[in-house]
Amino acid sequence: MSLAPRAVLVHRTTEYEELLARHGTHGQAAFFLASRGRSLDEVAERHHRTRRALAEVAAAVPLQWRQSRVERADLDRFLFAPEDVVVVVGQDGLVANTAKYLSGQPVVGIDTDPGRNPGVLVRHQPSDAGALLPCAATARADELTMVEAVADDTQRLLALNEIYLGPPGHQTARYRLGPDDPAAAPEPQASSGLLVGTGTGSTGWLRSLWQQSGSRLALPGPADPRLIWFVREAWPSPTTGTSLVEGVLESTERLRLTVESDRLVAFGDGIESDALELTWGQTVSVGRSDTALRLVG
């Protein structure tokens, strides 16, 4: 006998809650913001709107289903099950934060603040949850491409937007970069890091690099199996080159990076707290993941 689906409601701490945690009371938080020319009323209203949305979505979960909640900070410690229906209640970025911990579960994005969020990934309103959730497991879903980094010690990292490989601070990263092919000669480089991302990520950090570099590469779409990559601020020197600073990876192609610094990190979608630690001599392969994000349309 199969288990009933479990609705996992993913949310994040609001700015209002963070202010209360820092300042102790509503009055002290209001005084702090007023001293900087801001009003707490707007922040509190967004908080209440978010909480109302979360309550409305929770009430729409079918009675025979199980239900669980997880805050963004706890995602790396939460165990998602194959039968879960993941309901992200918040902003577009929260969907990306959640995607790296999933393995094909359907995701429903609920926008808590229409007009402030682009709504690219949180496509639905709280009032839609009652009709969406019962059929979410079988509903039409967009298969959004994800990117992965796999280190030679089996560490693996997934991301929906992009993976950053580079120094953890402001130092220069040194490495060798080239196709993941033993017959291809890699190029020694010194830079402030490398970004490899998807069509979903092409509306954010990747796009800014694409614009700044005046790239003529065609940006991929969210469901496009291609990935696009850029090296940030590559430095030419007698021992480091700048000929490999951008490119496209087709669905089966991968990049290989060999670390030549004491420490590099790899993290996905801006979550620096959940990073791969890479040391001198290690290699990491980056390319399209077999896992895709199933985003219910």
Strand content: 25-35%
Q: How confident overall, as mean pLDDT? A: 93
pLDDT < 50 stretches: none
Radius of gyration: 21 Å
Envelope shape? globular
Largest sheet: 6 strands, mixed
Order of helices and strands: EHHHEEHEHEEEEEEEHEEEEEEE
How is the largest sheet built, in terms of strand order?
2-1-3-4-18-5
Number of helices: 6
Please tally the β strands and state the result.
Answer: 18
Share of helix among residues? Answer: 10-25%
Spatial gap, N to C terminus = 29 Å
**Overall SS class:** alpha+beta
Structure report:
- It comes from Streptomyces melanogenes.
- InterPro entries: ATP-NAD_kinase_N (IPR017438), ATP-NAD_kinase_PpnK-typ_C (IPR017437), NAD/diacylglycerol_kinase_sf (IPR016064).
- This is Inorganic polyphosphate/ATP-NAD kinase.
- The protein is of the alpha+beta class.
- 20% of the residues lie in helices and 32% in strands.
- The protein is built from six helices and 18 strands.
- It has helices spanning 15-23, 26-34, 40-60, 92-99, 129-132, 205-212; strands spanning 6-11, 66-71, 84-90, 106-111, 141-144, 147-151, 156-159, 162-166, 173-179, 187-191, 194-197, 227-231, 246-249, 254-259, 263-268, 276-279, 283-288, 293-296.
- The strands form three sheets. The chain has a six-stranded mixed sheet with strand order 2-1-3-4-18-5, with helices on both faces. Strands 7-6-17-14-9-10 form a six-stranded antiparallel sheet. A six-stranded antiparallel sheet has the order 13-12-11-8-15-16, covered by helices on one side.
- A hairpin with a 4-residue loop joins strand 6 (147-151) and strand 7.
- Helix 1 (15-23) packs across helix 2.
- The two termini are 29 Å apart.
- The model has no long low-confidence stretch (mean pLDDT 93).
